[in-house]
């Protein structure tokens, strides 16, 4: 499963703010083009949903639930918790929060 359609540079105080517009954009940087930058982020493919959990204890709890229910997902561990990626089966609205 290809997670990202490409990458964009990030900046801002926390290093998580896109430095370039990405909504409705068709072309992105490759990993090789952007990997030397201090901050960059992947732009998810349209058919994917990312769940971001910033607390390690909660992340481990969710992983246990996902494994116990045999839910198919890709998992990426981060320094604070992690991300889970799921195929979007028709969610009408994506919401951050």
What would you note in describing this structure?
By secondary structure, the chain is an alpha+beta fold. Helix content is 18%, strand content 32%. It has helices spanning 31-34, 56-68, and strands spanning 4-11, 17-18, 40-44, 48-53, 74-77, 82-87. The strands form two sheets. The protein has a three-stranded antiparallel beta sheet, with no helix packed on it. A hairpin with a 5-residue loop joins strand 1 and strand 2. The longest helix has 13 residues, at 56-68. The two termini are 25 Å apart.
List the helices and strands and how they pair.
Blueprint: E1 4-11, E2 17-18, H1 31-34, E3 40-44, E4 48-53, H2 56-68, E5 74-77, E6 82-87
Antiparallel strand pairs: 1-2, 1-3, 4-6, 5-6
| General form | globular
List the total number of helices. Answer: 2
- The H-and-E topology, N to C, reads as EEHEEHEE
The proportion of residues in beta strands is: 25-35%
Q: Kindly report the spatial arrangement of strands forming the biggest sheet.
A: 2-1-3
Largest sheet properties: 3 strands, antiparallel
Which secondary-structure class do the elements indicate?
alpha+beta
Task: Please name the defining characteristics of this protein.
97 residues, alpha+beta, three-stranded antiparallel β-sheet, 18% helix, globular
Summary?
The chain has 97 residues and is α+β, with helices and mostly antiparallel strands.
